[in-house]
Specification:
Blueprint (H helix, E strand, L loop, with lengths): L1 H11 L16 H4 L4 H9 L3 E11 L2 H8 L2 H10 L6 E6 L2 E5 L4 E11 L2 E12 L2 E17 L4 E13 L2 H9 L1 H28 L1 H5 L8 H17 L14 E4 L1
Antiparallel strand pairs: 1-7, 1-8, 2-3, 3-4, 4-5, 5-6, 6-7
Helix pairs in contact: 1-7
Amino acid sequence: MRAKKSGCVLILVLFTAVASGGTTQSFPEDLLRGEQGPSLREVVEDSTLHRQISGLRLYGEQAVFEYLSTHPDFAASLARAAGLLKYTVERRGEAEYWVNDHDGLTAHFAILRAEPGRMVVYAKGKYKKGIFRIPGRIAIVMQYSAGKDSRSPYVQNTVTGYVRLDSGLFDALARLFRPAVRRRMDKRVTWFLGKANQLMTRLYEDPEAILQKLPSETWQEETKELRILLAPSRLLHTWTRIDLRGVAPTNALQS
């Protein structure tokens, strides 16, 4: 049972980014009528699990957050260079990507919408561990806004996810054990947020320590743009390591 629950959770947190708000976020209706409308509508209207988590705070400037969120392949390379995550993300088309967490989860995902304050992501993947094969889809609406405290600027976030497991057995199990899956999901989201905050803090403290570890023949344009985005805030703010034990979701709506 432990492996089954882990598979559900890994699909659920496939692309946990951040967003802001405190009320239930509805899925954009126009996207349900688009090219992937039928598949998206099935996920949104008959989800195995619907979850909204707010109070997610990522330290750093909104411009840096938006750049890394819309360049997930580059962000994953930075996280690997920093020794924080093992994820591999490859671009496969215009705003389309393939991800491998090197622990059984692979998926294709697309950024359906990226605009100031909001992103929409749709993914289809599979978790494989031993004899288990768990296919699933996830649609995520992310909203965010900038803020500032005594230490540094931050992006305040809420993420709303609709998850559908495309396996009758595992779909039924996930629905049956929803409370356990939710608890595991919250723990996983908090862990992922902690890793993201560590990456952001280290980029502001000493970006070259990470950027110099990237292969010299890759990410030249992205590295140049990131340096430009980081420079103003590094001059204005004194960055100190943040006690991430206090960084956790403050509210969750579920179904």
